[in-house]
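Figure 2 data, in text form.
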Amino acid sequence: MNLENPHQPAPQYPRPPISLIENDIPHWHVNIYIGGSEGTANVALLKEFDIKIVLNCAVNLDIDWVTERDGKWSDTANAFGSGPVRYYKLGLIDGPGNSPEMLLAGYYLMRSALAQQIPNKPSYKNRDLGNILVNCRGGRSRSVTIVALFLHLEIPEKYPTLDAAIAHIRTTRELHPDEWYETPKPELKNLAEQAVKMHNLLRTQQLI
């Protein structure tokens, strides 16, 4: 961290394109991974790690995985159809500008993607439950926040606090200590703490 200018971003340290974060999570018995844009777009890596579900947390990042096109095509139409994974997207800003409800929605979306029952119809190409990858542009802030929130709420006996989950991810994602002050961004961590309180309130009132 630049002590003279603490708002200056830390140097970009190397990290794996995709990192295993948690193995054999309860109930679903799948693995959780975090990745950056290049790792997430690498279909060979997704296949290697048996990743069947991808949750993209970045509002400013789109990935085109279309391998089977649907419908008729014209010169002005972009590709649409199916790809190698079940793809979900949550549009987070990496810093201020989000609401705590969106962080909470990210947790529910991640959980619901694992619980979803896919119908046995030709239009649903990816029906198998497999490992889940949560990504953002660098795999160091937005995705870290959502996965930490998920680990804390789903496995509280192992991750009793949000900080405990973040500390685990910093190690397994191989984030350098010099960038910990922004991995994740403080604004996102604060919103995640609010999301935990919102979730607990809903659970106390038996609304979930």
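Caption note: The first helix runs from residue 37 to 41.
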